[in-house]
TrEMBL record, chains A, B:
The active site is at 291, 302, 333. It holds the Pfam family tRNA_int_endo_N. It comes from the Archaea. HAMAP family: EndA_long. It catalyses: pretRNA = a 3'-half-tRNA molecule with a 5'-OH end + a 5'-half-tRNA molecule with a 2',3'-cyclic phosphate end + an intron with a 2',3'-cyclic phosphate and a 5'-hydroxyl terminus. InterPro entries: tRNA_endonuc-like_dom_sf, tRNA_intron_Endo_cat-like_sf, tRNA_intron_Endonuc_cat-like, tRNA_intron_Endonuc_N, tRNA_intron_Endonuc_N_sf, tRNA_splic, tRNA_splic_arch_long. Endonuclease that removes tRNA introns. Cleaves pre-tRNA at the 5' and 3' splice sites to release the intron. The products are an intron and two tRNA half-molecules bearing 2',3' cyclic phosphate and 5'-OH termini. Recognizes a pseudosymmetric substrate in which 2 bulged loops of 3 bases are separated by a stem of 4 bp. This is tRNA-splicing endonuclease. Residues 80-166, 261-345 form the tRNA intron endonuclease catalytic domain.
Length: 355, 355
C-alpha cells in the first residue's frame, strides 16, 4: 500500500481508506480512496503504520520518512505534538482548513469524523509565540465554527519540551446579587486612598466597600477605585475645591497608574453593575477577586473569579496565561480577563482542561 | 504632655521620652527629650496615646489629629500601614532617613532601638507603584545599610485595601553537581526544536537534555535553547549549510522570541555552568525550573527554583512579583530572577515572609 504526497495532501487508495479512515478515523474519504493532511500522515509515519510516503515532486524515488516530513515544514511540529497527544488520549480528530482559527476538530471519545458530534475545537500555539485577545475570543466563541456550538474552545500550548497544556476558553455570563443602598457620606482624599471617619454602617459590613482601619475601629478606608466609583454615583463626597469629587479621585488614580486606573475603574463599575463585589486581587497577582452574593462581610463565601483588566488589543504571552490559570486553579478560582472595548467589557475566562 | 510638630519632626519633653521611647521604642532621645518621625507620631495619634499634636507653624492653636496628619501628606499612608502592621505583630521599629532604600529598621522581637541587633531592613511600596530591579538588588544586598549585615532585606507591599505582603529578597549562591560528558552527536534543525535521531545514551537519561519523542522511543527532541547551548560547546552538529551550527539555531530562536531568546540562552548557560539543569518552567509560568543534582532522570528529585530571565533594567510591577512568588510557594520552589548584566547574571530571589 503506497501513499503519495503532492506537497499539500497525502493520498491513498481504497485499502488505505479502509485501514486508516474506516477503522481509525484518519483523513477523509475521497473518490473511494483516502486524503490525509500532512499532520495525519506524519502520525502514521511516526507510529510506523506507514514506512515512507512517495513524493510526487521527486523523481529519485526516495520516500519521505517521519523525520524528513517534520524537517520539511510541511507539518508544523506544534500541530504534530498536539495531534499525537490527543491521539494518545484516545481521541480521533481532524485538521481543519488552515485559514480557520481552529486547527483541529476533536470528536467525543468513541466517535469519529463519520459522526456529527464535536467535543473540542482546538487551536495550537507554541510556548514561544504570542496570541492576541481577539483570537482568544474567537476561540472561546467559536465564531468561525460551522460545527456544533456545544463544543468547547481550547487553546493547546506546546512548550519547549513538547508537553501540551490545554486551556479551555469561554465567554462567561456574570451575575451576582449584591445590591445595597448606602446613604451618602463624606471622606478625606489621602494620597493613595480615601479615609471615611464616619461611614454608614452598610458601607463596609454589607456592601463590602473598603476595609475597616482596624478590627475595632469603625473608620473605613476606601481604595481609589472604590472611591471613584462611589463618588461617580453621588454616594461619596470628598470636598475638593474647584473640581468635581469623582474627577479629583480619578486624577489621583491616574497620577500613579496612568490609563490602567481608568481600565480598572471601568471593570470595577461593570462588576458592581452586575451585582458582583470586586476586591483587590493583589495577593493572587490579579487586579480583582470577586464575590457574587454578599449579604454580610461576616459571611462572605468563597470568591469565584480572579480578574485581570486588559486593553482589548492585548497580546498574550502563553507563559503568562499559564501562570494566571495555574495560580487561579490552585486557589479554586476561575481566571477572568476583562477586555475593555468601546462601550463595554468583553469577558473571557480561561481554565486548565484535561481532555 | 504636649508634642509639637515643625513640619519635619515631632518633639516632646522628658515625660514623652520616658513614656514612648524608654517604655515602647518610639522615636529617639534628644537633649533629654524625644524626637519622633511623623509616622511614629501618626501611630501614637491613631492609637489614642496622644490626642493631638501642636503645629508650630499654625497660630490658631488647633492641634493636628490622626486624620489631618495623614491627609497633610507629612506621613505616607503606605509607611503608616507598614509601621502599624509591624507594631501589631509585636515589633519595635525605627524609620530611617528618607534618602535610604531602607524605610524601616525592624528590631528582633523583644528588642528595640537601644539594642544593636536588626532583624529586618524594610522598604515600603504601594501596590500601584513600580520598582526597578536595581532597587530590589539594593534591598537584597543591604548595600546602603550601616547596620548588622545579618539582617534580612524585605519589600513590604501595601495593597489597595492596605493589607501588607512581605517579600524577603536575597542574593542566593547557586551551585549544583550535574556534569556529564556527552560524546558529540548530530541532530535535525526543525522549525521550533532539534530532533536527534540517534542520541548518545547520556544525553537525556543522565545529563537531562531534551525529552524522548515518546516513552518507548529513543529519539530525543531538544529545545532551541538546549540545542544552541550544546552546539556552542561543539557537542551538537545540525549540518546547516554556510552557517555555523550554533548561529543557525540562535537565529531560529530569535525569529520568534527576539532578544528574549538571547537572554534565556545566557541564563541557561550560566545555570549549566553552575552544574544546575534548567528545564522549561512553562507550566509554572516561568522561563525555567531547575534541578541541582541530576545523576539520572529516573531519580530527579524535587526542582528547587523557578527562574525568570529579565533585562537588568527591568521595572517590576508589585502585582507580578506577588503572582510569581505565590505560585512558586504553592509548588514548594523559590522564585529566582536572573538579571542579565554586562559580563554575567545577577541572581535575585524573592520569597514570601511572615515576620
Amino acid at each position: 500500500m503506497q501513499l503519495t504526497f503532492d506537497g499539500e495532501t497525502v493520498r491513498g487508495g481504497n485499502e488505505a481508506r479502509e485501514r486508516f479512515y474506516d477503522a481509525r478515523g484518519y483523513g477523509r474519504p475521497h473518490d473511494g480512496g483516502l486524503e490525509l493532511a500532512p499532520v495525519e500522515a506524519g502520525h502514521l509515519l511516526f507510529r510506523g503504520d506507514v514506512t515512507t510516503v512517495r513524493d510526487d515532486r521527486d523523481d529519485s524515488g526516495e520516500g519521505i520518512g517521519f523525520e524528513s516530513l517534520l524537517a520539511s515544514r510541511a507539518v508544523s511540529e506544534v500541530d504534530f505534538f498536539v495531534y499525537k497527544e490527543l491521539r494518545d488520549r484516545g481521541f480521533y480528530l481532524s485538521p481543519t482548513d488552515s485559514a480557520d482559527v481552529t486547527d483541529f476538530i476533536v470528536y467525543p471519545r468513541g466517535q469519529g469524523p463519520w459522526d456529527d458530534a464535536v467535543a473540542y475545537r482546538v487551536t495550537t500555539l507554541s510556548e514561544r509565540a504570542t496570541i492576541d485577545a481577539g483570537t482568544l475570543q474567537a476561540i472561546a466563541r467559536g465564531i468561525d465554527a460551522e460545527e456544533d456550538e456545544a463544543s468547547t474552545g481550547v487553546l493547546a500550548v506546546v512548550d519547549e519540551e513538547s508537553e501540551v497544556t490545554y486551556l479551555e476558553l469561554d465567554v462567561p455570563t456574570l451575575s451576582g446579587s449584591t445590591y445595597h443602598d448606602i446613604p451618602s457620606f463624606e471622606g478625606d482624599l489621602l494620597s493613595d486612598r480615601v479615609l471615611v471617619p464616619e461611614p454608614p454602617a452598610a458601607l463596609h459590613d454589607r456592601a463590602f466597600y473598603g476595609q475597616r482601619l482596624d478590627r475595632d475601629d469603625d473608620r473605613v478606608q476606601l481604595s481609589l477605585v472604590e472611591a471613584a466609583y462611589l463618588s461617580s454615583r453621588g454616594d461619596l463626597a470628598v470636598g475638593v475645591e474647584d473640581v468635581a469629587d469623582a474627577d479629583a479621585i480619578v486624577d489621583r488614580g491616574r497620577e500613579v497608574e496612568g490609563e490602567r486606573f481608568d481600565r480598572r475603574l471601568r471593570v470595577y463599575d461593570a462588576l458592581r453593575s452586575a451585582g458582583i463585589v470586586p476586591k483587590t486581587g493583589f495577593k493572587f497577582g490579579a487586579d480583582f477577586r470577586t464575590y457574587a452574593d454578599v449579604d454580610s462581610v461576616d459571611d462572605l463565601g468563597h470568591s469565584e473569579f480572579l480578574v485581570r483588566a486588559l486593553p482589548a488589543d492585548h497580546s498574550f504571552v502563553p507563559r503568562d496565561l499559564s501562570l494566571d490559570v495555574r495560580l487561579a486553579h490552585g486557589v479554586r478560582k476561575r481566571m477572568l480577563f476583562a477586555l475593555t472595548v468601546q462601550g463595554g467589557i468583553d469577558w473571557l475566562s480561561a481554565e486548565r482542561l484535561t481532555p
